[in-house]
Design brief:
A five-stranded parallel beta sheet has the order 2-1-6-5-7, with helices on both faces. It is 34% helix and 18% strand. By secondary structure, it is α/β, with parallel strands linked by helices. The protein has two domains: 151 residues, SPOUT methyltransferase, trefoil knot domain (Alpha/beta knot, 3-Layer(aba) Sandwich); 50 residues, tRNA(m1g37)methyltransferase, domain 2 (Trp Operon Repressor, Chain A, Orthogonal Bundle), CATH 1.10.1270.20. It contains eight helices and nine strands. The structure holds adenine. The site of adenine (ADE) has 12 residues, from β5.
Amino acid sequence: MRIDIISVFPEIIKNFFKHSILKRSQDKGLVEVHMHSLREYSIDKHRRVDDYPFGGGAGMILKCEPIDRAISLLKSQRNYDEIIYTSPDGEIFNQQIANSFSLYHNLIILCGHYKGIDFRIRENLITKEISIGDYVLSGGELASVIICDTIVRLIPGVINDEQSALSDSFQDNLLAPPIYTRPSDYKGWIVPSILLSGHKKKIKDWELQQSIKRTRLLRPHL
Ligand code: ADE
């Protein structure tokens, strides 16, 4: 999978891709991430990418022209499955959306910033708007990292034990069961004895019961 991220502040994002699973996915050649600084697509001599809103009001708006140039250049080089804009107005991101994105080959993520982007870009170039929750971030950079992290771990081969991504919370609309490691008795806090029994079938049943119980308690709408 190739992911192109367009942002006014790519530096905010870069570090996330240098560690853990996001790094490993690139080292294994399964994912390519390309960061694009929107300023580099400005033809303004001061590399300006924002301007005042027509009609007045507070906050600056990201201009059409640098965004259009960045996206058009990428689109001239390959076909993209989706051109995503991170915005609080978007569809709320969840595991089902992540699963469908993980099947894509080429993805552009445009990060909003300031007051947002000129609406004409949303109408003419963006194919999907995604929000990571009903709250407002200073910019879409963190949202883009969350989207990437969630989808990259679903790509076969990225996580060594594929089962591990498939058994994540939400994959079957259930929260994950409680998990423990050694020692089995820490300060008198005891690991449930069933997990030490070695009885695989009983352990699976117990884990499913725990998942159902925790989902009912904590996320009944699931
Ligand atoms: N940009 C600002 N707030 C956001 C949100 N909640 N989700 C995605 N992008 C955003």
